[in-house]
Amino acid sequence: MSAPDDLTRAVEAVLFAAENPMTRDEISEHLGGADVRDALADLSEHYDGRGVNLVKRGKLWHFQTAPDMANLLRREREEVRRLSRAATECLAIIAYHEPVSRAEIESIRGVQTAKGTLDVLMEAGWVRAAGRREVPGRPVIYATTADFLSHFGLESRRDLPGLAELRAAGLLEPVEEAMERELDSRATENAADSGDAGEHTEEEATDDDVRSLDMGDESA
Amino acid sequence: MSAPDDLTRAVEAVLFAAENPMTRDEISEHLGGADVRDALADLSEHYDGRGVNLVKRGKLWHFQTAPDMANLLRREREEVRRLSRAATECLAIIAYHEPVSRAEIESIRGVQTAKGTLDVLMEAGWVRAAGRREVPGRPVIYATTADFLSHFGLESRRDLPGLAELRAAGLLEPVEEAMERELDSRATENAADSGDAGEHTEEEATDDDVRSLDMGDESA
Amino acid sequence: MAGGGDDGATGAPDDVPDLPPATLPFDEEAWEAHVEDARDDPAKLYIDVDGYEGPLDILLDLARRQKVDLRKISILELVDQYLEFIDRAGEMKLELAADYLVMAAWLAYLKSALLLPKEEQEDPSPEELALRLQLRLQRLAAMREAAARLMARDRLGRDVFVRGAPEGLRVLKKRAWECEWFDLVQAYGQVKARTAPVVHMVRERMVMTLESALSRVSSMLGVAIDWMELRQFLPPHADPKLKKSALASSFVAALELAKQGKAELAQEETFGPLRLRSMKRGEGE
After folding, report:
1. Does C147 contact B at CB distance below 8 Å?
2. Hey, which of A92, B25, B185, C244 has its CA 20 to 30 A from A52?
């Protein structure tokens, strides 16, 4: 690469530092009236093929990033967020009952569903509007997408565990009871930690007896 | 001129487009984690001698106009705040002694430092509070910033003008230490004058050792 | 040693026009010119005195007038110059801050000490004091020069410029949602559980029925030979919940046996231990 002459360097510096594109005359005026034609031509050629180009728009010259590098200036960054409890429930209901309308989702959940909740599921690409139900009011009905299946590693919706399996896994217990048991076991853990494990172990055993009685009863 | 590869072009484009200087890691992150070391080296070399240069200040890289173009570009824009003499001296003391407390600055200048003086330097972004010295009263200590390096065109603090000479001359050590050394060497001289030259040389050597130790410590 | 005067005249406030770095090496001619001017217009010199940042600043300027290396400076000459400066300022009725006068007094002391014969010197010796002053002047001079060199560098925004109109880098945030298979399935389970019709079930409690209590008490009474306390009839290793039920049932059983004439009850006081024994034995006696 041949070293640029001082005039070319000056034009380069002036255009680089300029806050606005400049005409040839403005550049020239800035440099004491020098003829900058050759310098501009040299620079254009020099920057051709680089990450930055010297371009002329109308009569105005300016540096800009090369067109094929434009995408670098806008970089996307993913922000991973966990689905809220409400959204998870909605998604589950849609998956198990699809296609369902919003009113149906609400009746299954037993609580109202905020509009944003379904939007989140659609933004995530797991739920889509699947037409309208032909009933009065023609409500929109929702269904899961192919992305949904692939995200959860399912071949098809039939791979979702059935109610019997859910029960066997203890997933059909009312929340309160599951909560209580959870709290109990935590309390026991804590007690064990604090050293008077003996007393609590006994208590636990009794509890278990009662529970196994319960279960026997239920299965009977 | 050999055509730059795409990574080099990308680094060039990103640094041209950036509104602020960037660290190598930031550039790399922006380009999907690519190793940009070689690209930066290529670009620095390529722009060396042009009207625009790629420079490294501290850990930050940016393009700037070549220093010899200052006269052409300075124009009417006198944006740089003129610092008072007090402020320039404070800045120099902080830069050459950092981290340093206000009391230490005052002891060098022999005069109290108006509160506003340090504020001006902090507002300019050249000085920051850098914790407290663990001595009675726990005074705040001050140090220079990355912006300081960028503004004054320093690659690192080691590039401070005359730093090595000042250090070699012992002018960056506290008066007390210099006193001791000076008195020692005078005593030795007297001894030497009275005929014992051997001791003098030895003493001298020790002195040098101490100084070079100091320097090692600083750069560590 | 300079201490800190805190009135405005000591340290120059930052907004007072400062000597530009270029004039920093003391310009003797300019100084003399100022002094000349000041004879007509004392206020002018006042501004210059005010421009000094404390006595050390003046001392450094005076030292520079000796035009020798600061390491070889004559402290005695410097002291004389300073005292003369203070005198002149006094003649011109310039307001001097306490700092300047304290320094003058200290320097006068230093001078007399330096002139004394060595034997009479105290500790620290005047040579040490002079050396300390010299070292301080060297350090201030070094920093002043460093500041000037620093300010003369190619400074960003003054000598060198960054790109005038950078396109800017934008980072767009895109949300990616995350949900685990287990969370999904569990959520459905809980929805179903929450909304399932509620069925109440009474837990089976551990009880001792009246029948079993009756048979237990009567069989135990049959082999007993003396009064027995009611509690002795309870199953010994029962769980506390069962114990309560057993106590109640056994009490009712005891009453029933008494009613049938098979047992007799005794209680010494209210809430005292309830005792019972077989009636057969009573008949036998």
Report:
1. yes
2. B25
